[in-house]
């Protein structure tokens, strides 16, 4: 899909991997809708990109009305990139007792249910569009994590949520194929994000040393370029791309 001139919605787009992705797509000529829980941050990013801001929660079943408002402003929705997500660190059974069930449910709800909610709403709107010259009506890129396969101790909730996103790729792509809508997934490894940059420099160096090559943290712009490739390559479908420098996470 040629993304120049196309309307693409990016969730979690006001910071981290989502912000880098929104900037990459806008630089390629896409009209970008920025969705983030922070209204102020979303407006700031949308103003920078000349796009549209949505302040909302990806788990909100009624957020479709805001998506429709963005469509009225920027045109038919051709792309969705799901970057919104949260994490938690808790043992299933720790010194303080069992992991609170509500903590597990919250991560699953935001990461997995939120991804599916946005997928269903975006796909519903894409199915009615006229096909592009490639036969596509739209494309979706979801964000998983290497934790889906290499989940560490304390990552039960996070790994389960990202594993669900990985498993979603194939059935979603198969179901939406008849409409010409592709679904792919990027599973990033250890990336330089605002949260990770808060760690001491020596800790960051220690983490980077565990990555075979290149022996450094991933840059958000590298993730963004991978998302762009997923959107642009019309033959890429139902794929899960590990973007991790060949790292395999140890148990802890």
UniProtKB/TrEMBL annotation:
Residues 6-189 form the Ketoreductase domain. One of its GO terms (molecular function) is oxidoreductase activity. It comes from the Bacteria. InterPro entries: KR_dom, NAD(P)-bd_dom_sf, Sc_DH/Rdtase_CS, SDR_fam. Keywords: Oxidoreductase. Belongs to the short-chain dehydrogenases/reductases (SDR) family. This is SDR family NAD(P)-dependent oxidoreductase. It comes from Histidinibacterium aquaticum.
């Amino acid at each position: 899909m040629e993304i120049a001139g196309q309307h693409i919605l990016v969730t979690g787009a006001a910071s981290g991997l989502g912000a880098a992705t929104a900037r990459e797509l806008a630089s390629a000529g896409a009209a970008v809708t920025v969705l983030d829980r922070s209204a102020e941050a979303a407006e700031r990013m949308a103003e920078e990109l000349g796009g549209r801001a949505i302040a909302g929660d990806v788990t909100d079943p009624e957020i479709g009305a805001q998506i429709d408002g963005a469509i009225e402003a920027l045109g038919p929705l051709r792309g969705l990139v799901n970057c919104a997500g949260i994490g938690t660190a808790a043992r299933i059974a720790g010194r303080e007792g069992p992991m609170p069930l509500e903590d597990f449910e919250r991560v699953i709800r935001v990461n997995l249910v939120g991804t599916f909610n946005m997928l269903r709403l975006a796909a519903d709107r894409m199915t009615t569009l006229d096909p592009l010259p490639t036969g596509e009506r739209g494309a979706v890129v979801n964000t998983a994590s290497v934790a889906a396969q290499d989940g560490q101790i304390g990552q039960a909730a996070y790994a389960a949520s990202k594993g669900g996103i990985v498993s979603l790729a194939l059935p979603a792509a198969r179901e939406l194929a008849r409409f010409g809508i592709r679904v792919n997934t990027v599973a990033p490894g250890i990336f330089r994000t605002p949260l990770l940059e808060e760690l001491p420099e020596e800790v960051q160096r220690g983490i980077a040393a565990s990555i075979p090559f290149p022996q450094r943290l991933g840059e958000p712009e590298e993730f963004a370029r991978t998302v762009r490739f997923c959107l642009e390559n019309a033959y890429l479908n139902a794929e899960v791309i590990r973007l991790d420098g060949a790292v395999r996470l140890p148990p802890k």
